[in-house]
From TrEMBL:
<keyword id="KW-0456">Lyase</keyword>
<dbReference type="InterPro" id="IPR032673">
    <property type="entry name" value="DNA_photolyase_2_CS"/>
</dbReference>
<dbReference type="GO" id="GO:0003904">
    <property type="term" value="F:deoxyribodipyrimidine photo-lyase activity"/>
</dbReference>
<keyword id="KW-0285">Flavoprotein</keyword>
<keyword id="KW-0234">DNA repair</keyword>
<dbReference type="InterPro" id="IPR014729">
    <property type="entry name" value="Rossmann-like_a/b/a_fold"/>
</dbReference>
<dbReference type="InterPro" id="IPR036134">
    <property type="entry name" value="Crypto/Photolyase_FAD-like_sf"/>
</dbReference>
<comment type="similarity">
    <text>Belongs to the DNA photolyase class-2 family.</text>
</comment>
<keyword id="KW-0227">DNA damage</keyword>
<protein>
    <recommendedName>
        <fullName>Deoxyribodipyrimidine photo-lyase</fullName>
        <ecNumber>4.1.99.3</ecNumber>
    </recommendedName>
</protein>
<keyword id="KW-0274">FAD</keyword>
<dbReference type="GO" id="GO:0003677">
    <property type="term" value="F:DNA binding"/>
</dbReference>
<dbReference type="Pfam" id="PF00875">
    <property type="entry name" value="DNA_photolyase"/>
</dbReference>
<dbReference type="InterPro" id="IPR008148">
    <property type="entry name" value="DNA_photolyase_2"/>
</dbReference>
<dbReference type="GO" id="GO:0000719">
    <property type="term" value="P:photoreactive repair"/>
</dbReference>
<dbReference type="InterPro" id="IPR052219">
    <property type="entry name" value="Photolyase_Class-2"/>
</dbReference>
<keyword id="KW-0238">DNA-binding</keyword>
Length: 452
């Protein structure tokens, strides 16, 4: 089975002509966002190009700092990458771990080994996108992007920013039958690859140049753990998803977001396995979040360059927040007070503490948490910045399109509609603790997370 040609997108117009030396040179799969061996369309495509005559090399370039990531996230990533390297070695595919500026390092590797083609992952966020753009210019050979994240490739589903879930949903559903296909197995490599040094994991840990005070969390990383988590969710919790997913005490959600964020699990694998269960409403609701909501976030970041600021929000929402800019705030906190969970609200502090301690905050609490940041910040701009900064700093699944969209949905009406007007919020949808109390046992949540 071949990789669907619409997942593939040329990032430069360099050609490796049939007779040229470089068309027989190794294929590099520049792994970035999709950090897995199984179910990885980019890796499968690179393997397909290599065939039985050209060697395939997988390379990951670790930038010593990256989009406000902290030590917690680097540690999670490196633990997963070690497993990738070991699994590839069993298949005769070398794994190059380079440290430095990703665009320069990939160009240097391509030149060193006389590569004929470089394949990489689709990524709508600007840091990775700018590395890809620079590499596309500097490489002498084709750089090809493969969308291994979205079930319906983001460049295919829509060529514009979608207004809401209701506008992207029919587009996705119309194309799902074509793209929601099973993955072929990756074929081991038998040609001898170029000489690639063994990855030096200690050097990688030493090179990390970020906030080291955010300690790693005790959450299993890697492809194997991701599949165990998916299986366990399907066997034991999926059945309760429809009824209990909004109860932060129930543990009813999948907890797959970190695996998806680091590319350790293909959303398409989760969709295929869940779709095979016949779990009624729970199945439908889960697939709505996993496919429609998640791919709506990818669509937004692909088509809106202001995806991480208030300027990215819809006009009506920016206007209503502006009208209420000078409304009196009952409480005002600095970013540092939010960070340290020092607000008057035990419920808000519990959510912040859950995130700080575990690298994960329950989805329902994320909405409440971000809306209160709006209510207790001096301006909506600062609220957006605080929510995104804290989300990116602590969540394992942070720094993702879902995070930027989640913050803008909560604070600035993105993909939502206007609601009844209130102070500070204007027409942005409101949430309060009383609403939470109607949904779940707030005191249980508070006592679970507000411990010294
Ligand atoms: C303020 C705020 C910040 C958020 N930050 C992030 C973030 O940084 N990273 C992140 O992945 N998600 C984020 N979300 C979306 C959502 O809350 C999380 O994806 C979800 O809680 C992760 O837990 P889970 O894997 O158990 O979810 P499940 O309910 O089991 O859902 C399965 C998967 O579907 C996707 N999904 C679920 N809910 C949403 C949603 N509302 N929008 C888009 N995709 C969704 C995720 O990939 C998730 O892993 C945020 C939401 C808000 C309101």
């Amino acid at each position: 089975m071949r990789v669907h040609d619409k997942r593939i997108y040329a990032l430069n117009d360099k050609q490796s002509s049939k007779d040229a030396e470089d068309s027989r040179g190794p294929v590099i799969y520049w792994m970035s966002r999709e950090q897995r061996v199984k179910d990885n369309w980019g890796l499968l495509y690179a393997r397909e190009l290599a065939g039985e005559t050209r060697p395939l090399v997988v390379c990951f370039v670790m930038s010593p700092s990256f989009m406000c990531a902290t030590f917690r996230q680097y540690d999670f990533m490196l633990r997963g990458l070690k497993e990738v390297a070991d699994k590839l070695a069993e298949m005769g595919i070398p794994f190059a771990l380079r440290i430095g500026g990703p665009d320069a390092e990939i160009v240097s590797l391509a030149n060193d080994i006389g590569a004929g083609t470089v394949v990489t992952d689709f990524d709508p966020l600007r840091t990775s996108w700018s590395w890809q753009k620079k590499a596309a210019r500097e490489l002498k050979v084709p750089l090809i992007e493969v969308d291994g994240r979205n079930i319906v490739p983001a460049r295919v589903v829509s060529d514009k920013q979608e207004y809401a879930a209701r506008t992207i949903r029919p587009k996705i559903h119309r194309l799902l039958f074509e793209y929601l296909e099973d993955f072929p197995e990756l074929i081991p490599q038998h040609v001898s690859p170029p000489d690639i040094p063994e990855p030096d994991w200690n050097a990688a840990y030493r090179a990390i140049n970020v906030d080291r005070s955010i300690f790693p969390v005790d959450f299993p990383s890697g492809e194997k753990s991701a599949h165990i988590a998916l299986d366990s969710f399907i066997k034991t919790r999926l059945i309760n998803y429809a009824e209990k997913r909004n109860n932060p005490n129930a543990g009813a959600t999948s907890r797959l977001s970190a695996y998806i964020q680091f590319g350790q699990l293909a959303p398409q694998r989760a969709a295929l396995d869940v779709a095979a269960t016949g779990a009624g409403d729970s199945q439908d609701m889960f697939l709505e979040e996993l496919i429609v909501r998640r791919e709506l976030s990818e669509n937004f970041c692909l088509h809106n360059a202001d995806y991480d600021s208030l300027s990215g929000a819809p006009e009506w929402a920016v206007a209503t927040l502006d009208d209420h800019r000078d409304d009196q705030r009952l409480y005002l906190y600095t970013r540092d007070e939010f960070d340290k969970a020092e607000t008057h609200s035990l419920l808000w502090n519990a959510a912040q503490n859950q995130m700080r301690r575990t690298g994960y905050m329950h989805g329902y609490m994320r909405m409440y948490w971000a809306k209160k940041i709006l209510e207790w910040s001096p301006s909506p701009e600062q609220a957006v910045k605080t929510a995104m900064t804290l989300n990116d700093k602590y969540q394992l699944d942070g720094r993702s399109p879902n995070g930027y969209v989640g913050a803008l949905w909560s604070i600035a009406g993105l993909h939502d509609r206007a609601w009844k007007k209130r102070p500070v919020y204007g027409s942005i949808r409101y949430m309060n603790e009383r609403g939470c109390r109607r949904k779940f046992d707030v005191d249980e949540y508070i006592s679970r997370w507000n411990i010294e």
